[in-house]
Amino acid sequence: MSQMNDHRRLSGNCEAVQNSAYDLVRHLNSFLPPGYTIMRRKFLITGYLSLLPLLLPLILSACKGLSYDARRAMREADTYQLYPEKETAFKTSSHENIRVLIMSGVTEIRVSSTSLCEVRNFEEKVTLIRAQTVFPRISEDGIRLTGDNLHLDRIIILATGDGMLSLNGKPYRGKLIIQRNAEGKMDVINVVGLEAYLYGVVPKEMSREWSLEALKAQAVVSRTYTIYQRERNGNRDYDLCATITSQVYGGKEAESERTNRAVDETRGMVLFYNGQLILPYFHANSGGITEDAQYVWAVKLPYLKGVRDDYSMNVPNYLWKLSLPLDEIRKALNEKGFNIGQIERLMPVKVSPSGRVEKIKLSHSGGETIISGNEFRLKIGPTLIRSTLFSVTCDNREVHFEGKGYGHGVGMSQWGAYAMAREGYSYRDILGYYYREVTIQVQSSGVHGSRLD
Question: Is the C or the N end of the chain the one with fewer CB within 10 Å?
Answer without folding.
Answer: C
